What does this fold into?
Amino acid sequence: MKSLQPKLRFQEFRDDWKHKYFKEIYSFRSTNSLSRDKLNYENGLVKNIHYGDIHSKFNSLFKIENELVPYINDDISLEKIPNENFLKVKDLVIADASEDYDDIGKCLEIIDLNEEDVLAGLHTFIARPDLHDIALGFGNYLMKSDYSKIQIKTIAQGTKVLSISTTRLSEIKVNIPSIEEQTKIANFLSAVDEKLNLLKEKKVLLEDYKKGIMQKIFNQEIRFKDNNGNDFEDWEKVVLGNISDVRDGTHDSPKYVDNGYPLITSKNLNSNGKLDFKNVEFITQIDFDKINKRSKVDIGDIIFGMIGTIGNPVLLKSDEFAIKNVALIKEKKDLKNSFLIHYLNSSLILNQFKKENVGGTQKFLSLGIIRNLEILLPSIGEQTKIANFLSGIDEKIELVSNQIQDTQEYKKGLLQQMFV
It folds into this structure.
């Protein structure tokens, strides 16, 4: 029989892992089917974990003091719910439905309930490790291992919405080490998760700081001084189309090819100010040249979503592509695009869009609206100071984003190598 040992292991452990079925470790408990309208965040005696919060909100190592968990409304009778269905430490709360193939079977493990009464709700089930000794936190990572996830995807049923059943889940195979090794693995991976959470919190703080400081800068509550310590000139209200070259990409639908030049549309503009080439379509050299006759992009231009996804301006650092249904803003002498990119992300611009009531089934922002945007224009010197300051914050946010991505990749590698 093949030896059950992971590729990456703490050196003090040598024994083979044990081959088990899920049903030999966990037994299942019933959950309720309360919808969101039966819950509230104000008051109550019993809290409820909704499957949507497992997918999008809660940490997988669940400590109730760190999470905002809704109460069950007081008019809902809970008398018939047996005590064994209330959550306990080490329970896995597993979402049994998902529209995302990668998220099917997503779960959290109860680490600390702070003596509160908590139930699991709609589209979840509870797996309790009362049949085998499992270390605190280990079950969470066991479910995230490649071996478990591959099997869970295999047993998922459905088309638009995927689901799993307790019957099928109970038959998946898992491999587990001694309780001592489980503990060491769980502690190590939870330390990685803690680092990841701190980085995510740092990113949110930086983003909130930038949002707040932008509000003050563009409302002129904060003003910069020139290099001699003197005030800059007053800001001037101008119309964007009068001081920048504003045009748009093609509205035609060129034939797509397997290899060629990328054709960027609104879907390829990320909210973080970067281009996303993952799902880009390609066009021929002939179509590329044809589009570029009227709307050639250059490094330093800004492109801006006009149809579908509105906004998400990007300051271009490359130019080997064509554009369709996006605005193109080319810099002139009085307005620097390095300043404008931040202004376009400010509430001053977003409020103008709201006044225009762009939307409907298919959101659309006309070129005329963009050209008529009102801009409060500082001097070139102050524009430069503002752009450098806000770009400095962006660099810090990007650094933390890269650290988050690196840590996630590191964790992914650990989950692949520390389990078998």
In short: The chain has a mean pLDDT of 95. The longest strand covers residues 107-112. The CA atoms of residues 22 and 229 lie 70 Å apart.
